[in-house]
Amino acid sequence: xxxxxxxxxxxxxxxxxxxxxxxxxxxxxxxxxxxxxxxxxxxxxxxxxxxxxxxxxxxxxxxxxxxxxxxxxxxxxxxxxxxxxxxxxxxxxxxxxxxxxxxxxxxxxxxxxxxxxxxxxxxxxxxxxxxxxxxxxxxxxxxxxxxxxxxxxxxxxxxxxxxxxxxxxxxxxxxxxxxxxxxxxxxxxxxxxxxxxxxxxxxxxxxxxxxxxxxxxxxxxxxxxxxxxxxxxxxxxxxxxxxxxxxxxxxxxxxxxxxxxxxxxxxxxxxxxxxxxxxxxxxxxxxxxxxxxxxxxxxxxxxxxxxxxxxxxxxxxxxxxxxxxxxxxxxxxxxxxxxxxx
Amino acid sequence: xxxxxxxxxxxxxxxxxxxxxxxxxxxxxxxxxxxxxxxxxxxxxxxxxxxxxxxxxxxxxxxxxxxxxxxxxxxxxxxxxxxxxxxxxxxxxxxxxxxxxxxxxxxxxxxxxxxxxxxxxxxxxxxxxxxxxxxxxxxxxxxxxxxxxxxxxxxxxxxxxxxxxxxxxxxxxxxxxxxxxxxxxxxxxxxxxxxxxxxxxxxxxxxxxxxxxxxxxxxxxxxxxxxxxxxxxxxxxxxxxxxxxxxxxxxxxxxxxxxxxxxxxxxxxxxxxxxxxxxxxxxxxxxxx
Lengths: 342, 289
Description:
The complex is a heterodimer of chains A (about 350) and B (about 290).
Chain A: H1 3-15, H2 19-34, H3 39-61, H4 70-85, H5 92-114, H6 119-139, H7 141-144, H8 169-191, H9 193-203, H10 205-210, H11 215-241, H12 251-264, H13 270-289, H14 294-308, H15 310-329
Helix pairs in contact in A: 3-8, 3-11, 3-12, 3-13, 4-5, 4-6, 4-11, 5-11, 8-11, 9-11, 12-13, 13-14
Chain B: H1 2-32, H2 39-56, H3 61-82, H4 92-114, E1 130-133, E2 136-139, H5 140-162, H6 164-174, H7 176-181, H8 186-208, H9 218-233, H10 239-258, H11 265-277
Helix pairs in contact in B: 1-5, 1-6, 1-8, 1-9, 1-10, 2-3, 2-8, 2-9, 3-8, 5-6, 6-8, 9-10
C-alpha cells in the first residue's frame, strides 16, 4: 500500500463514527428526559461544553494558547442581548447566528494580531483583547448597562413556535440541538484535509510551511471559526438566562475554560463536553462544602492536574475502559486519547 | 504646567513601583522561560504581612518593609524548591495552568483569612500629605517610593553589572546550557534569583497598598500590568523592564487624568500595538525563547 493511500485509510478510519460516540450522544439525549428537574444546570453544562469545544478547536488542533477566549463569548452574549432587547432580530435562532457572526468578525480581525509572535505574545494579546473589551463594555454603559448588565431581555419563541419555559426545558433542547449541529460541523472540519493540516501546523509550523501549507491563512481560518463557536455559546448564555453582564468578559471565565478543557483533554472534540460535565460537578461539590471559597479548590485541582501530568492522568482514567475493550473485542482501545502536548 | 509635572511625578512613582513589583518576573521569564502568572500572589503576600505587622502588632512601617521582603522571599523559595522546579521543562500551557491554579488558591486563601475588603496600612505621619516644590505638588509617600525604588534599581544594576553573581546570572540568561557547561550552577542561581524576585515583589506589594490598593484580588487585577512590563520591556536586561515600567506608569496616570473616559483603555491599546509592532518587546532581543 502506498504511503498516501495509507494516510487516507487511517484518516478515514479516524473519521468514521464509533459506537462509543453514538452511545455518548444517546446518553446526553437521555439525560434530557431522565432529569426534568435539572434543566437549568444541564443547559449550563451544554453552553460550557460548546464554549470549551470552541477553545479546543484552536488549542487542541491548532495549538494556539488563548487566555482571552471570553472576549468572543462576551461579544456573542451582548450581541444576542442587544438584538433581543431592541427587537432588531426577534427570532432566537436568527439572533444566535447573528451573534455568532459578530464574534466571528471580531475573531477574524484579531486573528492577525494573534498569529504573530510566540506563545507568550499570544497569551498577552488574547488576554489584552478580552480586558480591552471588558473596559469598553464598562465604558459604554449606556449601551451595555454597565455593571448592572442588560436587563429586561424577553426572548421570543424559537422559530416562532416553541416558547422558552420557566423550567428551562425548551432552553435545554434548544441548546442541545445547537451544540449537536455545531459538533457535527466541527467533527467534519477536524477530519477534513483542512483539519489534518492544522494538526501538522500544531506539531511543527516550519515543516508544515515547508510542505506547502499556508500556515497563517489556516490559523486565521480556524481562529475565526472558533470565535464563531464562542460567540454562539455566549448568545446561548444570554438567550437561556435572559441576562448579559460584564462578567461574560472576565478573566476567570477564560481561565475556567482552560480548566474544563484540561480536565476533558484536548484534541478530540469530546474533551470539552466531558470536561464541562466534570467541571460543573466539581464546582457544585466545592460550593456546597465552602460556598465562598470554591475557587481555592478549583485552583488546587488545576495545580494537581499539572503536577501529576495531563497525559498520565488520562491514561489512568482510560485504563479500565481500555482493559474491558481489550478483553471483549480483543483489540486495542478505541478511546485512546490522541493527546499531544499543546 | 504644574499639573503636568505633578502627573509626571505620580507617573514616575507608579512606574517605579511597577518595576519593583515586576522585575522578579522578568528574571523568571528571561532566565528559565517560565510563565509565572502567580507573581502577583507573592506581592500580595508581602503586602498582607506588612499590614498585619503594622496594623495589628504595632510595628513601625519601616521595620515591617524588610520583613515583607523576607517573608515573600521565603514563600518564593519554598514553592520554587517544592513545586515550580518540576515545571521548568513543561510546555507554556502547563505553566500557565499551574500558575493560574496557584493564583486562584492564593486569592481564596487570603479572602478566607483576611476577608475580601480592601485593607490599608497605617502610615507614619511623616509620610502623609504633600508639599510644594516650586509650585509642583509632591506627595511625601510617592517621594519615598521614588527614593526607595530608585535606590533599589541602582543597587540591582550594580549587582548585575559588577558582582560575580551578576555575571553568573547574565551568563545563565544568555545561554543556560553554555553557562552550566562553564560550571555555573544554573538551578541554584535561578532559585536564588527567583526568591529575590519574589522578595522584591513582596516589598512592592507592601509599598503599593497605599497607591494600587490591596485586596485579595490583587494578583488577578495586576497580573496584566506585570506581564506588560516584562513583555514590552523584554527580559534580557534590567533597563528594558525599567523603561517599560516608567512608560506604563506615566501612560496610565496620564491616561486616567487627561482622558478619564478611556479608563484603562490607553495602556491595553499601547500594549497590543507595541506587541504587534515588536513581538519580542520594545527593548529586548528575545522576550521569550
